[in-house]
Specification:
Distance between the termini: 48 Å
CATH architecture of the largest domain: 3-Layer(aba) Sandwich
Helix content: 25-40%
Number of strands: 30
CATH class of the largest domain: Alpha Beta
Number of domains: 3
């Protein structure tokens, strides 16, 4: 069982959830033990994927029928109420306008269409259960009709036909991929919101006065009857309303394919499937409530945070060889992957050989030996500026630069002279800085016939004059340093207008050779940093590395990020989706990055410590922007939690809610903080009736300040996320207490006691 994709993982720690792991195909005694303890048996084991029906029909029969039969017989043996999920598939190719559970015929295709093995297995089980019912079994059969909703599937399933159509289509929209309409998409289905379906199922389980005993119920919404093509168009229209989906949705086209090509030979589809629900409504006092538009909107809302998980591909081009050979190679790889990116060009002389002077810098030789400089750059490039004159890259490779722009990729300025800038800019004055930048600006205009729109500093090296010059050029965004999340830079106390999009992930040349990482496993390492991560990232690569010797590694990264569901975008794409009014401002500073020699520009965010005054911060929050200093004079409880609507976080938030009046009497305010979107917070706050503010820290700025982002073990996998933590500030804004790795039980009582002791 995959505890992530089946969505049980979030429930295993719930106090009312008892999870036991076992194999029902092997351990019959284990099954019997648990059935004896229960009042109601709801077997959910089934293969219900069309692609599997066609390719592995025997596996479908073995699991859907044979593995369930012992469960049915034990329900008979111990007199339990068996609530068995049948399927709308049992009606097969029935031509009735509405499928009646009591009278509609069950009609299937020929034997050479293995697609029908699922329907046959389910129908056979229905008949066996009915037969046991004639001998006294208390049973109910229910037939779900196309239940849809958040959490039923992942939108990151890479295999066509392997998940429900709504989440499959949404995954294509998020990734900007074409949507395949099998046999033109004329098939109609009655789609049912998951909450409507579950509400009916709960009434069956409760079974007041035995009303559902020996009954067959369709659970569906006949009013939500739409063709697959209509569904696709509805979803594309709805996607345009959301900034997280709108841009990628514009790239999506509807393409027709055959069922054989999509599912494999042996598939046969049904044109219409509408449930008759008269007895369901009457017996259970139930009716479906949610319209198709509202059900889809709920799904779009739920997956917004996943859709926002973008990886910006920023490509630094340092040398003539990189421009001529590495860039065209990268363009081809990106086009095959349908990925967007930003290319930042060095526009003046190639003096790569001057970099040999760095041999005396601490750490340079170690890095050079790990990344094999000679292998990646070549003897000729390393001789430029030493034994050979440095060629003018912009003059000799302008055609390759323009071809990159004409292929649809964003282009910008890296530098005039890569090595000269990287080795000197930190200590140079305004006159030198402006002169160097003026050369690159003029050459960019000469090559491309337009002004530059972005900039990414060579070696992440800048000075205060360079930052100010970006504003003078009128650039809206740049990527000149390292850090977490976009921000507006402050230089010498002066806030600047442009937005910095710092590199957030390590580069390949920084991690290769460290901790046993090689070209064989370094892609897996980087992918582990973005797996199960709803945070946007900026990844810097180099035309001289990923465009040449490390191209196979980069292709594995592209495939892996695609499979994880990340949108691969340019700096312009990313900037266009930001809420510019809510971006924080941070000073820029110098710092070190493991695996890279020397210091570089980074966003300055220092971790706080006990008995220190907490730096003022602002962030988007329910009810308007939250500003910490606005609470001066009050004690403040900041509780960081992993994710809205998960059991532990719900329990913790409810505990703070219930104790909120007592906290207020003690002069304290409560603030909840997570990386969830503002809309998710608003829904979570409304659902739990939380009387306090929830802060949306999507860029992790506040999380970084309090150092709560950790690598955690979850079901055997390392994932990056918030460590449940709480911090108590006194009325003057000084941090007095902290709780890290919080266990929810009795935690709020401990915090309340600490508040009272201040």
């Amino acid at each position: 069982m995959d505890m992530q994709t089946d969505r049980l993982g979030n429930l295993t720690q719930h106090p009312r959830m008892h999870f036991s792991e076992g194999d029902i195909t092997i351990n019959r005694e284990w099954i019997e033990y648990h059935i004896r303890k229960c009042d109601v048996i709801l077997p959910l084991v089934a293969i219900a994927t069309p692609a599997t029906y066609v390719k592995q029909p025997l596996r479908v029969f073995e699991l859907d029928f044979e593995a369930n039969l012992p469960i049915v017989r034990m329900a008979v043996k111990y007199g339990k109420h068996l609530v068995f999920p049948s399927t709308s598939e049992v009606y097969g190719m029935c031509t009735d306008g509405e499928f009646d559970p009591e009278s509609s015929p069950l009609i299937y295709g020929p034997i050479n269409k293995p697609r029908w093995i699922y329907a046959c297995s389910k129908q056979l089980m229905d008949r066996v259960i009915w037969g046991y019912g004639m001998e006294g079994l208390n049973f109910t059969l229910f037939r779900p009709f196309n239940w849809i909703g958040p959490g039923l599937d992942t939108i990151h399933t890479p295999k066509e036909g392997s998940s429900r159509v709504v989440t499959q289509f949404l995954g294509h929209i998020v990734r900007g991929e074409n949507i395949s309409l099998v046999d033109g998409g004329a098939q109609k289905r009655a789609f049912t919101d998951i909450d409507d379906g579950i509400s009916a199922l709960v009434r069956i389980i409760e079974n007041p006065a035995g009303v559902s005993t020996s009954k067959i119920y369709n659970i569906g919404n006949p009013r939500n009857n739409f063709s697959v093509r209509e569904l696709a168009n509805k979803m594309l229209t709805l996607a345009a309303e959301y900034p997280e989906y709108a841009q990628s949705a514009q790239q999506v086209k509807l393409v027709e394919t055959s069922s054989g090509a999509y599912y494999g030979a042996g598939y046969q589809d049904v044109q219409n499937r509408v449930p008759k629900i008269d007895n369901t409504e009457q017996d259970l006092d139930w009716s479906p409530k949610l319209s198709m538009d509202d059900a889809l909107r709920k799904i779009f809302e739920a997956y917004r945070s996943q859709a926002m998980a973008r990886i910006v591909l920023k490509i630094d081009v340092d040398t003539l060889r990189g421009t001529r050979e590495g860039v065209p190679s990268l363009v081809q790889m990106l086009e095959r992957a349908q990925a967007r990116a930003t290319f930042l060009f060095s526009l003046g002389p190639d003096h790569t050989g001057w970099a040999l002077r760095r041999i005396f810098r601490p750490g340079f030789l170690r890095k050079a030996s790990r990344t094999s400089v000679l292998e990646h750059y070549g003897i000729k490039t390393l001789a430029y500026g030493v034994l050979l004159p440095g060629p003018d890259i912009g003059a000799r490779a302008a055609a390759q630069m323009r071809a990159t722009r004409d292929a649809g990729f964003e282009v910008g300025i890296h530098t005039w002279d890569h090595v000269y800038w990287q080795d000197n800019v930190r200590a140079r004055d305004r006159e030198w800085t402006i002169a160097q930048m003026a050369k690159s600006h003029a050459r960019f205009v000469d090559v491309f016939g337009e002004i530059p729109r972005t900039h990414g500093a060579a070696g992440w090296q800048m000075n205060e004059h360079a930052f100010h010059q970006l504003d003078a050029w009128g650039l809206q965004y740049a990527s000149d340093g390292r850090g977490h999340g976009p921000y507006r830079p402050t230089v010498n106390g002066m806030p600047l207008a442009h937005v910095q999009l710092p590199t957030t992930l390590p580069t390949l040349d920084e991690v290769l050779g460290l901790d046993g990482l090689s070209t064989d496993n370094v892609a897996d390492h980087l992918l582990s940093l973005t797996r199960h991560d709803g945070v946007d990232h900026v990844f810097t690569l180099h035309a001289e590395l990923e465009g040449q010797k490390l191209a196979p590694v980069f292709e594995r990264l592209l495939e892996g990020w695609h499979a994880q569901g990340h949108a691969l975008v340019s700096m312009a794409d990313y900037h266009a989706t930001l809420d510019l009014d809510s971006l924080p401002s941070y000073p820029v500073a110098w710092g070190e990055v493991r695996g890279r020699a020397g210091e570089l520009i980074e966003k300055s965010v220092s971790h706080i410590a006990i008995n220190q005054t907490v730096l003022d911060f602002s962030a988007p929050a329910t009810g308007g922007d939250f500003v910490l200093s606005a609470l001066k004079g009050k004690k403040v409880v900041l509780y960081f939690y992993p994710k809205d609507n998960t059991p532990g976080c719900t329990t913790e938030s409810l505990a703070f809610r219930d104790a909120y009046p007592t906290f207020q009497k003690a002069g304290a305010e409560i603030i909840g903080i997570s990386r969830d979107s503002l809309r998710s917070h608003e829904n979570f706050q409304r659902k739990l009736e939380l009387p306090f503010v929830l802060v949306s820290d999507a860029d992790e700025a506040v999380c970084q300040l309090f150092n709560v982002i950790k690598m955690k073990k979850m079901y055997g996998k390392e994932v990056r996320g918030i460590e449940r933590s709480t911090f108590l500030l006194d009325a003057s804004g000084v941090l007095r207490r902290e709780w890290r790795g919080v266990k929810v039980s009795n935690h709020v009582d401990a915090v309340l006691a600490a508040v009272g002791a201040l």
